[in-house]
Amino acid sequence: MQLKDNYEKFTKLIFILLPIFLITGPFLPGLAVVLISFYSLINLQHEIFKKIIQDNVFKIILLFCFIIILSSLFSNDVFYSLKSSIFYIRFLLFSVGLSILLLKFPNLIKIFLYIGIVTLLVLFLDSIYQFIYGYNIIGLEKHSNRISSFFGEELILGSYVYKLVGIYLVCFILIQNEIKYKNVFLISLMSIAGILIYFSAERVSIFSFIVLVSFIFILFKNLRKTLFLTFLIIILISFLSFYIDPNYYVRIFLNTYYDILGEYFMREHIVLLRKTILMFINNPFLGVGPNMFRIECLDEIYKIGINDYCTTHPHSIYFQILGETGLLGITPLIVIFLILNYSILKYFLKKNKKNEINLKISTFLIIVIMINLIPLIPSGNFFGSYINIYYYLPLGFYLYSKYEKSQN
Question: In angstroms, rounded to a whole number, what is the distance separating the alpha carbons of residues 39 and 31?
Answer without folding.
Answer: 12
